[in-house]
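Sequence only, no structure available. Ideas?
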Amino acid sequence: MTVAPARRVAYETIRAVTASDAYANLLLPKAIARAGLSGADAGLATELTYGTLRRLGTYDAVIAAAADRETARIDPAVLDALRLGTHQLLATRVAPHAAVHETVQLVASAAKGRGPVGFANAVLRRVSRASADEWMVRITELARSDDERLGLRAAHPVWVLRALRRALAAEGRADELDGLLQADNDSPRVTMAALPGLAEVPAGAELTDYSPIAFRAPSGDPQPLTERSGGRLRVQDEGSQLAALALTRARPVAPGERWLDLCAGPGGKSALLAAEALARGARLEANEPVPARAGLVRQALAAVPLDVPVSEEDGRYRAALAPHTYDRILVDAPCTGLGALRRRPEARWRKQASDVAELATLQRELLTAALDAVRPGGLVGYVTCSPHLAETSAVVADVVAAADGAVEELDARAVLQSLTRAPLDLPTPADGSGRAQLWPHRHGTDAMFISLLQRR
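Reply:
I predicted one. C-alpha cells follow.
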C-alpha cells in the first residue's frame, strides 16, 4: 500500500518546518501545487499539516508517554511521522488502521532498517488504544503546574500563554485568555485587500468589520482572483491593513512627502503603502535586509505603478544614512510572531522565552533610528505582530523616555476608530497611552500592536 499524496505532502512539509525552519504557510501551497492536489486532497493536506504543527507540543507529550521515552531520543524523521500519525488518530476522522499503516509506510521510506518501522507501529498502536480525552487526562496528570496543564490542553508553550495573559491583563481583560488560546487554534478566514486607488472591492463580496479596503476571500483558492487583478486584490490580514493605514491616514498627506518602510519584508504592507503614496502624492522607499525577502518586497510592489527603490541594509544603518529626512516611517519590527499563531502554527514552538530580550533590543534600536530619520513633526508607526509586552509597550515606553521630551505618542486607538467600518473594542491600556492592540479572539485579526509616535 502506497502513501496517499496528501499525507506525503503533509509529512514533507512538516519535515521542512522542523528540520530547516521553513514556513508552512509559504511552503505548503507550493507543495500542494507540485503534487497536483486539489479539492478534498488539498484540504486534507492542509488540515494534516496545520493541525499537526499547531498541537506539536501536546502530541509530543502523548508520544513520549506511549513510547516510554523522551522525544529527544527519537529520530527526528520518525518523530515527525509519529506526530502526523498521532494527529490523525486523535483529531481527525481518518480510519485508525489507515492512519497507522500509512504512517508506518512514511517511516519505512524515511528511516533505514526495520527497527524504526517496528517502533513506529508499536507506538501508534498504543496511541490508538485510547481516545483524545483519555490521553489528555493521562498527560495532564503528569503536569507540574496549572499553567503546564493549560498549555497541554490549549497547545501553547507555558511561556507563551503567560505572556498572552500578561498582555490581556494590561487591558484589564485577563479573563479572555481561554478565548484567545482557542482563537489561536482555529483556522482563520482568508481576508483580502483592494489596494486603494487601484482596485475596488468586488461587487457582492462580503465586507469585513474594520478595514475600509478589506473583504472576505471567495470560497476556494484566492490566487486566481489575485492574478486576474494583477496583484491589486491580494490576501492580507485585516490587522496588517489597519497597521499600514494608521500611519498613512493619521493626518492629511502633504504633496511630496517622503515615506520609508524600514523593515519591509515580505512586502504586503509595502504594497499598501505604495498604493496610498501614489493616491496621495507621496514618495515611498523600502528597505529589507534579507535578500530573499527583499525579492518578495519587489514582487509585491510590482502591482503598484510607482517607482519604489528597495534597499537591502540593516534597518538601523539604513535609517542613520538619512537623518531628519522622512515624513513618515513604518517600523514593522522583527518579533516573536506570537500574534500570528492562527496562520503560522509552528511559530509557537519555534521561539523561546530567551529570544525576547534580544529581539526587544533590536526593536528599540530600530525605533530609535527611525525617530532620528524623520523630520520635526514626522510620524513613525511602530508595529509588531506580537502582543508580548516586552516587545510592545515596554519598547515604546523606553524609547519615548530616552528621547527626553523630543517624541510624543499619539492616540493610535482614535486613529483606528476613525478608519473602521464598525467600532473597535480597544480598551485603554493600564498606562493610559494611545497604543492599540488588536486580538484574534476579539477582532478576528492577527494580534497586531500599533503605536504612532511624532517627533516634536
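The two ends are 70 Å apart (CA to CA).
Hope that gets you unstuck.
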